[in-house]
Design a protein that fits this description.
Elements: H1 7-11, H2 15-31, H3 38-45, H4 50-56, H5 59-82, H6 88-105, H7 109-118, H8 122-149, H9 158-174, H10 176-183, H11 190-208, H12 211-220
Helix pairs in contact: 2-3, 2-5, 4-5, 5-6, 5-7, 5-8, 6-8, 6-9, 6-11, 7-8, 8-9
Length: 221
């Protein structure tokens, strides 16, 4: 897979490649599945399927470029958030909401991550780790350090924090079908997202704030 990121992501900047990515994204959202064929993508985009190989090498290259495109947008949001002149706790709450909303905006994202990390090539897994997992983990490490320094957070292991937050968000979307069969819950709607954001804010912040911070919050209520 010689045309994967960064080459495939660079190729996606062309008009033709971008149309292919948009078509793939729209089909995955419409079908609630990443199982779309090259012929389906070609028909949706109005572009010859042979051009997928030209721009991305193969279907996995296209899927990787699509995830890289979406991840680049989210990573830029992380850097913007970290630079804001607000408290670490406020940043944490915005980060929790941002992760959940990103999964909701791109409902295929978690499936793509699972597929490219575990079912595609080792090269694809390495690239996903570089452009998605590593930047996200680095942001969270810096945010946690900022909160600890400000005496707002207790000491938190960044890897455990990443596992807790991303795992919880991932399961809401990736495991929704299993929960639906077990309990009859419906799809992840905007209202479900809002409820989950509040739930995760309370769950994570409640467990992370140090005792002094909790006392100050309690006394202000």
């Amino acid at each position: 897979m010689n045309t994967i990121v960064p080459n495939a992501f660079q190729a996606a900047k062309s008009t033709t490649a971008d149309k292919l990515l948009v078509a793939a994204s729209e089909l995955m959202i419409e079908r609630s599945s990443i199982d779309v064929s090259l012929s389906d993508i070609a028909q949706k985009s109005g572009i010859n399927a042979a051009l997928v190989k030209y721009h991305f090498g193969n279907k996995d290259g296209l899927l990787l470029a699509l995830l890289a495109r979406d991840a680049a947008t989210e990573v830029s949001h992380l850097e913007y958030l970290l630079a804001q002149q607000i408290t670490p706790t406020a940043k944490l709450k915005l980060h929790i909401a941002g992760i959940i909303r990103a999964y909701h905006q791109f409902p295929y994202m978690n499936r793509l991550i699972h597929y490219l990390l575990h079912e595609s090539s080792a090269e694809a897994a390495d690239e996903v780790s570089k452009f998605f997992v590593a930047p996200l983990l680095d942001f969270q490490r810096r945010l946690l350090a900022e909160g600890i320094k400000a005496r707002e957070f207790r000491a938190i292991d960044p890897v455990l924090f990443y596992t807790s937050l991303i795992g919880a968000c991932d399961h809401l979307f990736f495991g929704r079908q299993a929960m639906s069969r077990a309990s009859g819950v419906g799809p992840v709607t905007e209202d479900v997202c809002r409820q989950y954001i509040k739930h995760m804010e309370a769950l994570i912040c409640g467990g992370m704030l140090n005792s002094e911070r909790k006392e100050r919050i309690a006394s202000s209520q």
